[in-house]
Amino acid sequence: MNDLNGNLAERLQAIENDGFTIIENAIDRALVEEIRSALAPFCQGKHPGRNNFEGHHTERVYALLAKAPSVAKIIEHSSVMALVDALLPNNYLLSAALSILVHPGETPQPFHYDDAAEHLGINKPRPRFGVSTIWAFDDFTASNGATEVIPGSHRWPEERLGNECEAIKVIMPAGSVLVFDGALIHRGGANNSAADRLAITPQYCSPGLRQIENMVLAVPPNIAGQYSAKIQNMLGYNIIEPGFKGYVDGMHPKKLIDAQYKGRKYQANLPAS
User: Which of 178, 189, 232, 249 could form an S-S bond across to 237 if both were Cys, CB 3.0 to 4.6 Å?
Assistant: First the structure.
């Protein structure tokens, strides 16, 4: 696996300026095939998308860490973590992790961005709430539904919408990853080829926000306990400090996955404030 080779500052600047950066060949072919094989049982053409956003000729697999443990290797990939560590506050969460298998004949997805916060009454432009990634498990080409991004759109006001003439296709080989600001406008492209296009999109958010996917239910304690401390923290088995936001029954949530955990305990005898 490659790392950023001293280019961290340059990639962070690209995300600030353009909203995205591409790390080519971040994982090797062996890991690409390992993860593809783990996903294969769930991609049998039985569950097409339910609307134009999911894609009527697309298969999506959710709750990946409960189904394909090898996906953890890209979720906590060192190059991605270096960028997300710099872009989001400590204790950030895994907001979503799903695979997207785009079949021939799929139409373009509607333009959107991932960290929408209308429910908070906070419109763009605003501070960054999330960082998204899209990993290519097939080559992303001009004809097979490569992701399309609109450079600089993460800084646009809420009312400005994207259109096709402003978008560029993200062309990258399998094993590469697109890392982008959660407010960047993008979409999945049309698959006009004769082949499938598989991607996996782990998305990360600030610790005070609700995750897109309810991770502590999607990945139950008996499964979460098998992962690294980093993955467990991102799933929500952590607390926000200072303070103790995220506790369960007055205890650190890691007690649910590790009975021997000796972290901070709730003090019931604290005086009322």
Answer: 232
Q: Note whether residue 252 is domain-resident.
A: no
Which two three-digit tokens encode residue 73? 């290797």
Residue 144's CATH number:
2.60.120.620
Give me the amino acid identity at 12: L
Mean pLDDT over the full length of the chain: 92
Element (H, E) at 109: none
Query: Is 44 among the domain residues?
Result: yes
Count of positions (residues) in the chain: 273
Q: How far apart are CA 18 and CA 8, in angstroms?
A: 15
Indicate whether 266 belongs to any domain. no
Sort residue 125 into left (φ over 0), alpha (ψ -120 to 50) or beta. Answer: beta
Task: Read off the pLDDT band of 264 (50, 70, 90).
Answer: low
Alpha carbon distance 100, 62 (integer Å): 9
Residue 272 binned pLDDT confidence (cut-offs 50, 70, 90): very low
Count of domains in the chain? 1
Query: Residue 267: how many CB atoms within 10 A of its CB?
Result: 8
For residue 47, give both structure tokens. Answer: 């569950």
Distance (Å, whole) CA 198 – CA 85: 26
Q: What is the residue range of 35's domain?
A: 8-213
Give the integer Cα–Cα distance in Å for 58 and 66: 21
d(CA 32, CA 26): 10
